[in-house]
Amino acid sequence: MRGQLKTAALATVLLVLLAGCSAFSGFGFGQGGASESVTEEASGTNTVTPTIEQYETGSMVLNLAEMPGTYSLSGESKERLNESESQVTRFDTDGVRLRHERVFTDSSQRDDSPQAQLVFSAVAVFSDRESAKAGAENLVDSLEFENKQVSEADISAGVSGTRVTYRTDDGEYNTLLLDRHGRVVYFVVTSDVRGYRSDQATDLFKEMVFDVE
Description:
CATH architecture: 3-Layer(aba) Sandwich
Number of strands: 9
Order of helices and strands: HEEHEHEEHEEEEH
Distance between the termini: 41 Å
Protein name: Lipoprotein
Number of helices: 5
Largest sheet: 7 strands, antiparallel
Strand content: 25-35%
Organism: Haloferax marinum
CATH class: Alpha Beta
Radius of gyration: 17 Å
Number of domains: 1
Structural class: alpha+beta
Strand order of the largest sheet: 3-4-5-9-8-7-6
């Protein structure tokens, strides 16, 4: 029971932390219709960006089948621009059209487990590439911890991402890995009170890279 309460408390703490960062839950909603089609310039050729409905974020965000067997899905949220007028009013400058998040907790409750107690996976689809680039940068900047370390991470052949490690005031060791593909920003966070789980974060992020790229 004590282990279950500890994991539940950790999940609550991380979600509160993310809610306090404009780049996590503040990945707000930009202006415009959800089904708008945008034409972008890429390498000198015109390419038509998929509409919001064409982004299969359910397969981009980590799912239970991609997690070790001891994990369970403890929370999920998917929001679009046109689903909440209050969100549109509150977050009308970030350029996000769609965000999808999942939270997983390790149900093994073993103190010697090498796995993170909590994993957070998210995808945000922005209105355009520039907004996505700014959103990714704002996400990293919003983590204001003295012990924050930012570095480039080699994920797989030809693919790199940004790694951020930091310890919260409540003692959680968090590892964030993120990258951007077009107007999609995607990331994973591992959180544990016993230490950093950077290797696991990299392995899980690889799954997201394969699904997004």
